[in-house]
Amino acid sequence: MKTQTELSGSRLTLFPQGELDHHAAASVVGEIERSIDSALPRECVIDMSGVTFMDSSGIAVVLKAHRRMSELSGKLRLVRVPERCRRILAAAGVERLVEIETRETVHNERT
Amino acid sequence: MKERNSVKFEFLSRSANEGFARAAVAVFIAQLDPTLEELGDVKTAVSEAVTNCVVHAYPETLGKIAVRVRLFDDNSAEITVRDWGVGIADVEEARAPMYTTGGDDRSGMGFTIMESFMDKLRVKSTAGRGTTVTMRRRISVRAGVR
Ligand SMILES: Nc1ncnc2c1ncn2[C@@H]1O[C@H](COP(=O)(O)OP(=O)(O)OP(=O)(O)O)[C@@H](O)[C@H]1O
Ligand SMILES: [Mg+2]
User: Fold this and answer.
1) With a 6 A CB cut-off, is B107 part of the ligand 1 pocket?
2) Considering only alpha carbons, which residue of chain A is nearest residue B17?
3) Beta carbon of B130 within 6 Å of any ligand 1 atom
4) Is the pLDDT of residue A111 over 50?
5) Of A86, A88, B5, B111, which has the fewest beta carbons less than 10 angstroms from its beta carbon?
6) Looking at the DSSP assignment, which residues form a beta bridge with residue A102?
7) What ipTM was assigned to the predicted interfaces of this complex?
8) Ligand 1: which of B52, B65, B92, B106 to mutate, judged by most atoms within 8 Å of the beta carbon?
């Protein structure tokens, strides 16, 4: 799994690409934490549209990114989240901590 | 219910095999003509079961994981994921949402996800001997495709 990053002002956007499972999780967490630590953003956005598969291993990845942003008094937001990812994150109650926008919400805002 | 086809494969508990296992099951199940939605549900459940073997069954070692897929004539699939690892002392407790022995890398949602993405989930385990997870999922029969 690869993660591209984009920094604009105080917002860091991450684009993880590929399958987010236990095999990929440790290196993804490392990349996310390194990007946050070097950019020190006020807001971190993870664009999930490139995640072709995710299981419960993704929950801890999101929670770790959330914790890192909280330590900086910043905010984490997930956008363009595929429906199955959203269901998995919702089952674990992640949306109580992190704002989650599905593909549909993003689409509706534009039209 | 008659068995129409079946496959069995075995691999080492390396994390790289998680992707292999769910892809292999998906390719085999394609015979039932599932929707992408159904295929995604099954892949997620298989990934949960196999990851549990890699992470929990063989924590410090490598061991064998066996996956069996059976296709039935009512268009359902039964998937069995078996390990010979540490086992689970209290299965009911382990199946509860949020229960985990995996620290902050894990969230205790694997069994809950298997349950919600499949029609049936059975977990048999003996501490010190290993665990067998059996899942069943009915694949919808789509008109005009067969
Ligand atoms: N194959 C197995 N062998 C031994 N113990 C297991 C096995 N599968 C599950 N367990 C035990 O059951 C617990 C719950 O499993 P479950 O998959 O629901 O959550 P998890 O693996 O801890 O976290 P997550 O799946 O959300 O990453 C595990 O923490 C572990 O203690
Ligand atoms: Mg698990």
Assistant:
1) yes
2) A23
3) no
4) no
5) B5
6) A81
7) 0.94
8) B52
Q: What band does A51 get if pLDDT is binned at 50, 70 and 90?
A: very high
Three-state secondary structure string covering chain A = CEEEEEEECCEEEEEEEEEECHHHHHHHHHHHHHHHHHHCCCEEEEEHHHEEEECCHHHHHHHHHHHHHHHCCCEEEEEEECHHHHHHHHHCCHHHCCEEEEHHHHHHHHC
Closest approach of A9 to chain B, Cα-based (Å): 31
Homologous superfamily of the A2-110 domain (CATH): STAS domain (3.30.750.24)
Determine the Cα–Cα distance for residues B116 and A21; give it in Å rounded to an integer. 18
What does the domain layout of chain B look like in residue ranges?
A: 3-138
* pTM of the entire predicted model: 0.95
> CA-CA distance, A51 to A32, in Å (whole number)?
15
CA dihedral B52, B56, B61, B65 (to 10 degrees): -30
What digits encode the pLDDT tens for the residues B114-124? 999 999 999 99
Residue type, A110: R
B129 tagged catalytic: no
Is the distance from CB of B121 to CB of B111 less than 8 angstroms?
A: yes
φ/ψ (deg, to 5) at B92: -60, -45
pLDDT, mean of residues B119-139: 98
Superfamily of domain B3-138: Histidine kinase-like ATPase, C-terminal domain (3.30.565.10)
